[in-house]
Amino acid sequence: MKATATVFGVVAMVLALASAATANVIPFSENFEAGYNAASLDGQNGWATVAWAGTSMDVGSTAGKGPSWGATTLGNAGWIANSKSHGSTFGAGDHLILSADYYAAVGARGLVDVEKPGGSFGQYIMMEVLNDCGGDTGIRMEVQGSGGYAATADWTAAVTAQWYHLQLDWTVGDDAVYTVWDASNAQVFQGTVNTSTLITSADAAAMSVVAIGAAGAAGSAAAIDNISLVPEPSSVVLLAIGLLGLLCYAWRKRK
Questions:
Q1: Structural contact between residues 129 and 166, judged by C-beta atoms closer than 8 angstroms
Q2: 3-state helix, strand, coil in the chain (%, to 5)
């Protein structure tokens, strides 16, 4: 009986450790499936307009672009961006994945990022895809933090008018990895950006919103859908799960 109590005590400790390892990050997701009007995302479901120079934000069903999407139609050469709190604080070692689907319309660029609130762009990690926007076509990653600014890009990527899946894989304190897949699920690009030295722990703790945006020439359109920011199990959690399995095995042997 004493051995059993000891086993369960260790199991409880392991589970507590696993829980603490992911306590900092709260999952965020948005699929724009209901509750939005065609005028603007501003004030809807927690979204706030941080920049506005286009004419409309249409969230709904559009032929050829899927059953649900957030679309930005630019009536002039402008910029539209919205942000929403993901309710999290990031600590050292937290592992998270930011992803989104983006329709790369001709003449536009679309982005998704995690940043400090207020639209000041003081601390942020941003991914964007450009399709002949101002003469630029390619995939770009940009980071700004207390440690400075950096950007990496692939201007050889053959971006066309189709859906792309963007993913930022970041462990706080390490460099971020960004990957892009096309509509056929083929990987078209993967690169890294220097977040390990540019984004400090204080920066990470302040980056509590997700932002989406689009820019381009008059009449161009871009679509963003299925945004998510979710934690991934850290090495501590995986170790805890493995240890829990060994403890359960030892307990069964004792019985």
A1: yes
A2: 20, 45, 35
Assigned token pair, 69: 């999407």
Per-residue model confidence (pLDDT) at position 2: 47
Please tell me what DSSP assigns to residue 74. Answer: -
Bridge partners of 69?
Answer: 60
pLDDT in tens, 73-87: 554 556 778 889 998
The kind and range of the H/E element at 127 are strand 124-133
DSSP for 94-152, written as a single string? -EEEEEEEEE--TTEEEEEEEE-TTS--SSEEEEEEEEEETTEEEEEEEEEETTEEEEE
Report whether pLDDT(44) > 80. yes
Q: How far apart are CA 138 and CA 78, in angstroms?
A: 19
Enter the tokens of residue 79: 């910029």
**Interstrand relation of 56-60 and 69-73 (parallel, antiparallel or unpaired):** antiparallel
> Quick one: tokens of 250?
């030892």
The Cβ-side half-sphere exposure at 186, using a 13 Å CA radius, reads: 6
The amino acid at residue 23 is A
